[in-house]
Design goal:
heterotrimer, A alpha/beta (325), B mainly alpha (308), C mainly alpha (308), A: 325 residues, 8-stranded mixed sheet, 4-stranded antiparallel sheet, 23% strand, C: MetI-like fold
C-alpha cells in the first residue's frame, strides 16, 4: 500500500533578530493510512514546526524553505491558497497542544464544532449543529446536546482536548497530526485521550502523526517512529526495532535516560550537554559535541539519513558500531 | 520555540542611555526641540519681554517670512503691530509654567497614592480606585469649566484643576505595578526583616514603578498642555494681558481672513512641542523595557518586522 | 444578565451622585450663591431678595433636599439671559450635540475597525502607517487649531465648505472631522493592538486548520475577540468627546450643549451651565450602561463574572 503522506526533504527557516536560522532541515518521512507515526524529540528540536509546515499554519516569522509535502501524490506546498484550504479538514488536520487557548473563548463549542461542516459541506446552521452534537457524543462528551451551547471555559482540560480532537476529525481527515495532545493533562486523562485518538484512527482509517517528547507514549501508541534532533531526523524505523536496538547514539541516549529496569542505586544516565542553539549548530553532525562515538569524520561530514538495516534508517557515520554492541 | 537571547540583545543592554538616544534620530530631534522650548521659556521673557507687548502701529499685520522690519517680525506682526515671534517665545513660559507644575503635582500625588494603594491592597485599594473612576468618568474640560466659573480663571486654579483631573492616570498605573510587585519574593523578604511599609515602598517599589510613571507623565504632558490651550482658547483659561499659545490662537482667529499667521504659528508651536513629547515618550517606553530595548539598536524601518 | 446589569448600574451611579453633589457644593459653599446666579451689577437688595426666593437662607440640609427635588424634576431655575427654564434651553441644544457626537462615533468606530484590522493583518502596509500617523496626531493635535486650519484652507482659501451652520452635508464635514481625529486615533491603535493579539492566538490557527477563509478568520474569529477591549476604550472616548464637542461647537457655531455651556459661562448664566453639566453627566452615565451591556453580550465570561 502506498503511503498517504510523504514528506520529502522539508526545510523551514525562521527570521530572528540575529538573522535567519534553519529550524527544520531535510526532514523526510512517510505514513500510511491506519498507521501511527511518532515524531519524537526534545522541545525546540523542530517537531512542532514540522507539523505546522505540513498543515500550512506556520507563524509569520517562519516559512518553508524547500522540500515537498505530498498528500496522495500531490505536493500541497505548491497548491494555491484556496485549494489548500479545501484540503484543510478532509485532507490534513491537526490537534493542537493547549486546548484552552486553541478554542475560541467567545463562541459556543457547538458553533465551533459546526464550522467545518459549514465551510466544507455548506450545511445549514441547524444541520451543522446537529452534526456537531453527534461529534461531541462520539468523542465522549456527556449530554452533548445541552453542552453544545456552553463556552470553552466551562469545560475541564480533558473535555476541551476531546473537543479539539472532535474538531480535527470532523471531516474524516486522511492524515491527522496531533501536536503533544496530552502534555497538559493529568495522567489518567492522558490515557483516555490516547485511547480516543487510537480508536478514531482505526475507525476512520486515518494516518496519525503523533508529535511527542514522551517515550512511553511512543512505545504504547506508535507503529513507526522518527527521532528528531536539532531540526533534522536522526533515526527512523519500527518502534519495536528502534527501541530494542537504537542505531543512533542520540536515540540510545534518550532511551538510557528513562528510569526503567535500572537497578535501584545506580545512577540514571543522561546525555551530557544540551541541544544546540539554532544560531550555532555544530558543523557536520549536529549531535557530535555530545556524542560518545564522535570522530573526526563527524565534524567534517554531515551524515545523511541512510539505510541502516531492514526497514530502518539512521543519520550516523557509526551506526554499525551500535548495531554490533 | 523560544528564541535564545542574541548577542545583539546583550550588547544593547550594555549601551548607555545616551548612545541609545543618539541612535534614534527622531528621539534626538524631539529632545532638541523640547530643550529649545524650555530654554525660550526660561530666558525668552527676559530678552523679549518688552518686544512682545510693544505696539508698533506702523507695522500692523505684517506678513511673515520677511525681514524688511527686522528679525523680530520674521513671523509677522499682529493687529496691534506686536511681534508674533516675541509673543510666541514669551507665551511659551506661561504654557510651560501651567503644564509642568500640573504634571508634577499629579505625578507626585498620583504615584505615591497609587503605590500606597497597590502595596496595601484591600479596602484602601478599592476605595482609591473608585475615586479614580469617578474623576475619570467626568470630562476633564467640564470639570475645569465649572470650577473656573465658580473660582476665577487664574493660572494657579488652572494648574490645580488639571492636576486633580490627571491624578487618576498615575494612580491607576502606579497601583497596577505596585500591586504586582508587592506579591513578589523580594518584597516579602524585606517584610520579614521587619521593614516598615513606607520604607519598602521607597526602597523596592518606587524604583521599579517610577520609569513607567515618567513615560506616562511625558505623554500626559501633551494632554495637559492641550487642555490648557483649549481652556485659554475658549476664554476660560489664561486671561489677557497674559499670553499663552492657546490664547494667541483665539486672538488670531478673529483676523483669520486677513492675517492667517497670527493663528497658525502658535498652533504650530503646540503641535511641534506635543509631537516631540509623544516621540520621546514612545522612545522612553522602549528604552525602559529591558525586553524591548534591543529594538532601539535596529533601524526604525525594521523594528516592526521582528515580533518577540 | 439582569443581575450583571443591576450591579453595573449601581456602581456607575456613584460618579453621577458625586457630580450632582459636586455641583451643589460648588454652588453653595463658595461664598454667596447669588454671586453666581445674578449679574455682577446686582444690588445688595436684589441679592437678598434672590436668596430668600430660592431658599438660600435655609439650613444647608434643607437646601440640599430642595436641590435634589429640583434635579429630579429637571428644574434648574431660569436662564438669566432669556428667562426661559434652563432645562428647556439645554434640551433644545441636546439633539444637535447628540447628532454630531453620534455621527462622529459611528465614523470613528467603522474607520478604526477597518483601518486597525487591516494594519494588524498586514504590518507595515499603508493602513499600518495611517494608523500610527493618526494616533500620533490625535495625541498631539490641538483640536481647536485643527478646526481653524480646516476653516482657513477649505472655507477661507478654497471656499468649498461653510465656516459654520448645520444645514447641508458640507456643513458637517469640518465639525465631524475635527471631532473625529482623537477618538479615531485612539481607537485605531486599540483595534490594531487587540487584532494583533487576537490574530496570533492559537484559536486562529485552529480556525485556519478547519479551512476557514481569511474573511471568516479575520471578521468571524479575530474581530469578535478584539471587540471587548475596543469597547472599553470607546466608553472612555465618549467622555473625551464631550471635551471636543465644547471646542468644535464653539468654533463652528453648532447649536449644541457645548456651545451653550461656553456661552452661559461668558454671560455668567449659572442656571443653564448647571443644567447642561448635569444633563451631560446623566447622558454619560446612560452610555456607560449601554456599553457595559454590549460588553456582556459579546463575552459570556463577563456575564458570569469569570475573570479571564
Amino acid at each position: 500500500m502506498n503511503p498517504v503522506l510523504e514528506v520529502d526533504r522539508l526545510a523551514v527557516d525562521i527570521r530572528t533578530p540575529a538573522g535567519t536560522v534553519r529550524a527544520v532541515r531535510e526532514v523526510s518521512f512517510s505514513v500510511r493510512s491506519g498507521e501511527t507515526l511518532a515524531l519524537l524529540g526534545e522541545s525546540g528540536c523542530g517537531k512542532s514546526m514540522t507539523a505546522q509546515a505540513i498543515v500550512g499554519l506556520l507563524d509569520p516569522v517562519a516559512h518553508v524553505a524547500g522540500g515537498e509535502v505530498r498528500l496522495d501524490g500531490t505536493d500541497v506546498l505548491t497548491l494555491p491558497p484556496a485549494q489548500r484550504r479545501r484540503l484543510a479538514g478532509p485532507g490534513l488536520s491537526i490537534v493542537f497542544q493547549d486546548a484552552l487557548t486553541a478554542l475560541n473563548p467567545i463562541q459556543t463549542v457547538g458553533a465551533q464544532l459546526a464550522e467545518p461542516f459549514r465551510i466544507h459541506e455548506r450545511l445549514s446552521r441547524r444541520a451543522a449543529r446537529e452534526r456537531a452534537v453527534e461529534l461531541m457524543e462520539r468523542v465522549g462528551i456527556p449530554e452533548p446536546r445541552a453542552r453544545a451551547g456552553a463556552y470553552p471555559h466551562q469545560f475541564s482540560g480533558g473535555m476541551r482536548q476531546r473537543l479539539l480532537i472532535a474538531l480535527a476529525v470532523a471531516l474524516h481527515p486522511k492524515v491527522l497530526l496531533a501536536d503533544e495532545p496530552t502534555t497538559a493533562l493529568d495522567v489518567t486523562v492522558q490515557a483516555q485521550i490516547m485511547e480516543l485518538l487510537r480508536d478514531l484512527r482505526t475507525e476512520q482509517q486515518t494516518a496519525l502523526i503523533l508529535i511527542t517528547h514522551d517515550l512511553a507514549v511512543v512505545a504504547e501508541q506508535a507503529d513507526h517512529v522518527a527521532v528528531m534532533y536539532a531540526g533534522g531526523i536522526v533515526e527512523t524505523g519500527r518502534v519495536a526495532d528502534v527501541f530494542a536496538k537504537p542505531r543512533h547514539p542520540y536515540t540510545r541516549g534518550l532511551l538510557d535516560s528513562v528510569p526503567g529496569e535500572v537497578a535501584r542505586g545506580t545512577n540514571l544516565k543522561s546525555i551530557p550537554g544540551s541541544p544546540p542553539d539554532l544560531h550555532a549548530v555544530p558543523s557536520g553532525c549536529a549531535f557530535r559535541t555530545r556524542c560518545p562515538l564522535a570522530t573526526d569524520v563527524c565534524a567534517e561530514q554531515r551524515p545523511p539519513l541512510a539505510e541502516a538495516g531492514q526497514g530502518r534508517m539512521s543519520a550516523c557515520h557509526h551506526w554499525k558500531e551500535l548495531a554490533d554492541d | 520555540m523560544t528564541l535564545v537571547e542574541t548577542p545583539a540583545a546583550i550588547a544593547a543592554r550594555r549601551t548607555s542611555w545616551w548612545r541609545l538616544l543618539l541612535r534614534d534620530k527622531f528621539a534626538c530631534v524631539a529632545v532638541v526641540i523640547l530643550l529649545l522650548v524650555a530654554v525660550s521659556a526660561v530666558v525668552g521673557p527676559v530678552l523679549l519681554g518688552d518686544l512682545a507687548v510693544k505696539q508698533n502701529l506702523r507695522a500692523v499685520n505684517r506678513p511673515p517670512f520677511s525681514l524688511d522690519d527686522g528679525w523680530a517680525f520674521a513671523l509677522g506682526s499682529d493687529s496691534l503691530g506686536r511681534s508674533v515671534l516675541a509673543r510666541l517665545v514669551v507665551a511659551s513660559r506661561t504654557t510651560l509654567s501651567v503644564a509642568i507644575p500640573a504634571v508634577l503635582i499629579s505625578l507626585v500625588v498620583g504615584s505615591i497614592w497609587g503605590m500606597w494603594a497597590g502595596y496595601h491592597r484591600g479596602r484602601r485599594e478599592s476605595v482609591s480606585m473608585r475615586i479614580a473612576d469617578v474623576i475619570l468618568s467626568f470630562p476633564s474640560l467640564l470639570l475645569a469649566v465649572v470650577v473656573l466659573y465658580v473660582f476665577s480663571p487664574s493660572a494657579l486654579n488652572i494648574i490645580l484643576v488639571l492636576a486633580i483631573a490627571r491624578i487618576p492616570i498615575y494612580l491607576r498605573a502606579a497601583r497596577a505595578e505596585s500591586a504586582e510587585l508587592q506579591s513578589r519574593l523580594f518584597v516579602d523578604a524585606a517584610r520579614t526583616f521587619g521593614a516598615k511599609s513606607w520604607a519598602i515602598i521607597a526602597r523596592h517599589v518606587a524604583p521599579t514603578v517610577l520609569p513607567t510613571l515618567f513615560t506616562v507623565a511625558t505623554l500626559d504632558f501633551c494632554f495637559v498642555m492641550l487642555t490648557e490651550s483649549s481652556l485659554s482658547f475658549l476664554g476660560i483659561g489664561i486671561q489677557p494681558p497674559d499670553m499663552s499659545w492657546g490664547l494667541m490662537v483665539a486672538q488670531g482667529r478673529q483676523v483669520l481672513q486677513s492675517a492667517w499667521w497670527i493663528a497658525v504659528f502658535p498652533g504650530l508651536a503646540i503641535v511641534v512641542t506635543t509631537v516631540s513629547a509623544t516621540v520621546l515618550a514612545s522612545w522612553a517606553r522602549l528604552a525602559m523595557d529591558p525586553g524591548q530595548r534591543w529594538r532601539l539598536t535596529l533601524p526604525r524601518s525594521r523594528r516592526k518586522e521582528v515580533k518577540p | 444578565m439582569l443581575t450583571f446589569l443591576r450591579r453595573r448600574i449601581t456602581s456607575s451611579a456613584i460618579p453621577l451622585v458625586v457630580v450632582i453633589l459636586g455641583v451643589f457644593c460648588l454652588a453653595r459653599l463658595t461664598g454667596d450663591p447669588a454671586n453666581l446666579y445674578l449679574p455682577l451689577s446686582a444690588t445688595p437688595e436684589m441679592r437678598a431678595e434672590f436668596a430668600a426666593r430660592h431658599g438660600f437662607d435655609q439650613p444647608l440640609l434643607v437646601q440640599f433636599g430642595d436641590y435634589l427635588a429640583q434635579v429630579v424634576r429637571l428644574d434648574f431655575g431660569e436662564s438669566l439671559r432669556t428667562a426661559e427654564p434652563a432645562a428647556t434651553a439645554v434640551l433644545r441644544a441636546f439633539p444637535a450635540t447628540l447628532q454630531l457626537a453620534g455621527a462622529t462615533m459611528i465614523l470613528a468606530i467603522l474607520g478604526a475597525v477597518v483601518v486597525g484590522s487591516w494594519a494588524a493583518y498586514r504590518p507595515n502596509s499603508v493602513a499600518d502607517r495611517v494608523a500610527s500617523f493618526t494616533s500620533t496626531t490625535a495625541a498631539s493635535m490641538p483640536d481647536f487649531w485643527f478646526a481653524i486650519m480646516g476653516v482657513l484652507v477649505f472655507a477661507v482659501a478654497l471656499g468649498w465648505l461653510p465656516t459654520s451652520g448645520t444645514v447641508g452635508a458640507a456643513a458637517w464635514v469640518l465639525p465631524v472631522l475635527t471631532l473625529l481625529i482623537r477618538p479615531f486615533g485612539v481607537l485605531v491603535q486599540v483595534v490594531r493592538g487587540a487584532m494583533v493579539s487576537a490574530l496570533s492566538a492559537p484559536y486562529i490557527k485552529v480556525a485556519r486548520s478547519k479551512g476557514a477563509g481569511e474573511v471568516r478568520v479575520v471578521f468571524g474569529h479575530a474581530l469578535r475577540n478584539a471587540a471587548p477591549p475596543a469597547l472599553t476604550v470607546a466608553g472612555d472616548l465618549t467622555v473625551g468627546l464631550v471635551n471636543g464637542a465644547v471646542v468644535v461647537e464653539t468654533i463652528f457655531g453648532w447649536p449644541g450643549i457645548g456651545k451653550l455651556m461656553i456661552t452661559s459661562i461668558l454671560q455668567r448664566d449659572f442656571a443653564v451651565l448647571q443644567a447642561a453639566v448635569l444633563v451631560t453627566a446623566v447622558t454619560i452615565f446612560a452610555l456607560n450602561i449601554v456599553i457595559d451591556a454590549c460588553y456582556a453580550l459579546l463575552d459570556s465570561r463577563v456575564r458570569q463574572g469569570v475573570t479571564a
